[in-house]
Amino acid sequence: MILIGLGGNLTPAGFASPKAALGAALDQLSAQALRPLRLSRWYRTAPVPAVDAPWFVNAVAAVDTDLPPAALLARLLAMERRFGRRRAAGEISRTVDLDLLAYGETVGDWPASAGRPALTLPHPRLAERAFVLVPLADVAPDWRHPATGRGVSDMLAALPDRDGVEPLDDADNGASRRLPT
């Protein structure tokens, strides 16, 4: 299972909200050799680390693709740029953030290369982030970390708290749903 984290707390030009931009980014990725399978609920989440910034909108998508991990990351980063994301040290707020969380059972590190930061799979901070684990539990409640063997519920239980992660109060914010392919 390939898992992508979606997040943003700034509204790009031409969109009504961060959630609308994230949905559009996922739609555009599906036109580029990425097949979305399931999408979690949308969540409103506090910035991490805690700073004076707008709250985020986060979700997790399970997808399928024939792209290898580094090529998939390159597509995700290109999509971020299309939506106005500029990566900078210390950046908290962002329009669109697309993180490659896990790629099947793949465990490994890829060094940075021209135009792409280093890649570690699974995402090295996945188990520390309620804003990732809560929506991940919607999409893949039985998923196990391929390096540690820990399940999503175990990782959630180990978090000091889950404050700052709440379902968006939208009419369309039902449980995880299968997406058309």
Describe what this molecule looks like in 3D.
This protein has helices at residues 18-30, 69-82, 130-139, 152-158, and strands at 2-8, 34-39, 43-45, 56-65, 97-103, 108-110, 119-121, 165-167, 177-178. By secondary structure, the protein is α+β, with helices and mostly antiparallel strands. The protein has a single domain, classed as Alpha-Beta Plaits (2-Layer Sandwich), CATH 3.30.70. Strands 1, 2, 3, 4, 5, 8 and 9 form a seven-stranded antiparallel sheet that branches. Strands 6-7 form a two-stranded antiparallel ribbon. It is globular. The two termini are 15 Å apart. The mean pLDDT is 88.
Report the average pLDDT across residues.
Answer: 88
The count of β-strands is 9
Task: Count up the domains.
Answer: 1
Low-confidence stretches: none
Largest sheet: 7 strands, antiparallel
CATH class membership: Alpha Beta
Straight-line N-to-C gap: 15 Å
> How many individual helices?
4
Determine the strand fraction and express it as a percent band: 15-25%
Helix % is: 10-25%
**Helix and strand succession?**
EHEEEHEEEHHEE
Describe the secondary structure blueprint for this structure.
Elements: E1 2-8, H1 18-30, E2 34-39, E3 43-45, E4 56-65, H2 69-82, E5 97-103, E6 108-110, E7 119-121, H3 130-139, H4 152-158, E8 165-167, E9 177-178
Antiparallel strand pairs: 1-4, 1-5, 2-4, 2-9, 3-4, 3-8, 6-7
Helix pairs in contact: 3-4
